[in-house]
Queue: 2 jobs
Job 1
Amino acid sequence: MAVPQSAIGDKPNLLGMTLPEMTAFFAAMGEKPFRAKQVFRWIHHGGVDKFDAMTDLAKSLREKLPQVAVIQAPKLMTEQASSDGTRKWLLDVGTGNGIEVVFIPEADRGTLCVSSQVGCALDCTFCSTGKQGFNRNLTTAEIIGQLWWANRAMGKDPKGERIVSNVVMMGMGEPLANFDNVTNAMDIMLDDHAYGLSRRRVTLSTSGVVPNLKRLKERCPVALAVSLHAPNDSLRDVLVPINQKYPLAELLATIKDYLQAAPRDFVTFEYVMLDGVNDSVQHAHELAKLVSGIECKFNLIPWNPFPDAPYARSSNNAIHRFRDVLQQAGLIVTVRKTRGDDIDAACGQLAGQVVDKSHRTQQNNRGSSNPSRTIPIINAGLTV
Ligand code: SAH
Ligand code: SF4
């Protein structure tokens, strides 16, 4: 059994509590709300995981807290730094599962790519995370724990600003399929007593879980990225199978509605470039027509290969031709740069570990007979 990080044994894990939850927890102990705020700040502002270190708490409270609660982040297994400044941490989330967290420095920001699940159930055909199957949702503590670790490692710049300035929910998993834990973790990211990120600096990427995108608009509207990857339903049904349930017309109408509440007035469409599959000039024309009337930017992602995948990366020529057609139609397009190559941290190269509970890897790979083996996973992700 995986150890749930929101409660270790019988004790709740304070790392995964939002401020209102922590306030309620403290109230139940007969403690005042400002005590909850102090502890919340120590954990997220201070990066502290020892009650002893919370020097402005009454000694009696410092002694009481370890008896009723824990502060437990996922354990750090390895840390790597690339020559281009990209950093990568492997975190242990129990029972043979690991997730990777990547930090990408840019001129004007530092972006952290955060995972929401161990594996993914949605099975997009070009995605290694999908192909490796699904194990479980990450808890709120495990999601916010990724930012907690990265802040501890990166610290602040000389002006006192945090070096991790942006978060993209683009690591392993489908964030809208783990709605409650992801939105609670985003609440903590946005809280001024924790990380104080503005909604514009937190981006959620989804393959299009329409009902939960509608809920996100009400619950926690942040910047939005949508994995489009095809200009019509027949191709998207194959590449992104959730499209069979929530086809393009429904998805695009929901995005339009979401933008009413979003902190940025555009959606970023991600489009992975697959040689001979979705990268022709005709596809580009069809795509430009499809999105007309939606405020959007395109991010073309050169596909990153993984073993036994039935695809190849589009040529640079094909990518540039595709970009030019979209630009001529008046769209803003960037081609994603590959970062962290030397430490395998580029989009589609992350190697966490998934013990596949859905046994998809066996269905995909009929020679294998050990269902509980630890499978290296190549994860997808990175900046918008
Ligand atoms: N599940 C969410 C977020 C995680 S995937 C989603 O699908 O949007 C983050 C991005 O990486 C998605 O746009 C995904 O389509 C893309 N991606 C997946 N596998 C990839 C690969 N092998 N090469 C390049 N991009 C990939
Ligand atoms: Fe899941 Fe996103 Fe990969 Fe699709 S692209 S399988 S939704 S992680």
Job 2
Amino acid sequence: MYPLLLVRYGELSLKGRNRRVFEDLLLANIRASIAHLPHGRIIKTFGRIYLETKDNWEELAARLQRVFGIVSISPVLRRDLDLEEIKEGAKLVTEDTPGKTFKVETRRANKQFPVSSPELSRILGGHLLRSFPHLKVDVHNPDFVVKVEVRSEGAFIYSQVLPCLGGLPAGSAGKGLLLLSGGIDSPVAGFLSMKRGVNLEGVHFHSYPFTSQQSKEKVLDLARLLAPYNAGGRFKLWVAHFTEVQKALAKGSYPSLSITLMRRFMLRIAARLAQREGALALVTGDSLGQVASQTMESIHTINAVTNMPIYRPLIGLDKQEIVELAVKIGTYETSILPYEDCCTVFVPKNPATRPTIQQVERAEEELDVEGLMEEALAKTELVELHRDKIL
Ligand code: ATP
Ligand code: MG
């Protein structure tokens, strides 16, 4: 019944050129997200966007709820600036909204309209009470609010406000490279960086045949679940061949440092890839203190191999908060599938929780660090994913 979706977007503090770039990108991302669905015009007016639906507002809204930069959407009716028409529209919206108590809220941006906001709210409230004897007005804590916006383009009437993701439009910041494991954390870290406009690619370290084909498929699935949040609904995943590094570490004389050494290799390889791809930052799913490799000492020692900025959007989140986000963005079910990760295969019995840079540098003297990196990079393959499929 709603021929229009009203799309509200945020970051109103953005000024001048930034604002234009923000709005143009947002419009392009909206267009791309609904490209395969029937819809009418997309109309931009001051600070808001209207999308004409084709009797499919729910399906369109579901797509828009994944577009960063949108704060909320409402399915709305538009009526001409005529009191009788507005009354009829308010009645339809009320009929469509569950609840026993309500109030009417009017905003009159168009002062040409002769009835003031409080007066219009009173007229409509009275009309609705007469039309629906089971309803009562409650101005303090109503079950629903009938909202009427009187603008020069017409009167817009609605009750539902669907919250969306907020953030900045996909692609409005530079490129980043996510270290994507098969776990719960890193997809959420990727999501949060994309939320601030990062155009994300991923790298996954895979140790076939120590880790199975299934564990790789799982990571491809996770990357595909992240794809809709990227500009164009695409995600590039680099699958790095980590087997030789793992073998060399397993033979080494410092088993308690093997996780730290492994993470240093991951960061070095990721930093090289990032440079090659023009990425400006790495992104990881570290959360402070969660495991031995995420103590402050470990992060300090692991971080020392690169100057590249490393974003850790989960650093201050508890596991439960991360799980809730994973559920919300739809990656949780895939993340908990029980396939082994390269880290789980080679975990030492007693991983060092306070490794120092001197210790790991000594341990790395017996390794051909550069040769191992080159080999891993040479055997890295690219998989491109799209929101609906693995390309
Ligand atoms: P996750 O749930 O993301 O696997 P975790 O709690 O298991 O995280 P760790 O295994 O210590 O944490 O990994 C810390 C971070 O290192 C991950 O969030 C991810 O960014 C990166 N990482 C770990 N393993 C891999 C891998 N096989 N490939 C790519 N990145 C990885
Ligand atoms: Mg992990």
